[in-house]
Known about the structure:
Number of helices: 3
Strand order of the largest sheet: 4-7-2-1-9-8-3-6-5
Strand content: 35-45%
Shape: elongated
CATH architecture of the largest domain: Sandwich
CATH class of the largest domain: Mainly Beta
Helix content: 10-25%
Amino acid sequence: xxxxxxxxxxxxxxxxxxxxxxxxxxxxxxxxxxxxxxxxxxxxxxxxxxxxxxxxxxxxxxxxxxxxxxxxxxxxxxxxxxxxxxxxxxxxxxxxxxxxxxxxxxxxxxxxxxxxxxxxxxxxxxxxxxxxxxxxxxxxxxxxxxxxxxxxxxxxxxxxxxxxxxxxxxxxxxxxxxxxxxxxxxxxxxxxxxxxxxxxxxxxxxxxxxxxxxxxxxxxxxxxxxxxxxxxxxxxxxxxxxxxxxxxxxxxxxxxxxxxxxxxxxxxxxxxxxxxxxxxxxxxxxxxxxxx
Length: 292
């Protein structure tokens, strides 16, 4: 043929062969570190780091590592459902499984004062909470673990378990927050790795009286005590030393909601103190520690 271009050699092959793999033959699910071994503890650690630090943790091949993150095969990458299913595989509680149904259940996430609670109809295997602003987060959920950090002006907290523990179905307090931060995003998964639709409600009237644990605790010299009032009430908050002597008393009338009281112990001796709330017929007492 006239004017036919001359081929240019790009690759020279010596011995061996070429194996062409079809797309449906490629399955790297669970091999987030791309070392050829799927569903290792190293993959779980890397996945956990992602939820706090974001995509920059994928330094080998970001696109390939993200593609490998759909452990539960529900068609969604980089979800806490995948992390939960990966943990179940590691503990021998599950095997790489058929495709799951995304968002099969719903949960309501309530923010009342400094407490974040989850009300779900299924056991929650893991949840990622993203807050706007820089603050401190402490774990309230029993038998669970938490990793948190402040990244790019956001406070991110992942509540999960490296074993087979979960947050039981129903209403449970999960986190206590401190600082000027607001909850903007929640991602949750049930125990089986199915994603759960999380609906955030930030302005709610408490359903019951509740006296919270002071924060910080131990403290020096100031701490904050928060409590919930389901109805308007006159209340009294008394602080006693270990000998039972009254050292400070607060009282007021408040509408239904969450009330916060700042306690300044500058003139007190180090030691154990007790604070007692009385509001209408509700009475509750908790312990706090002043450590100077």
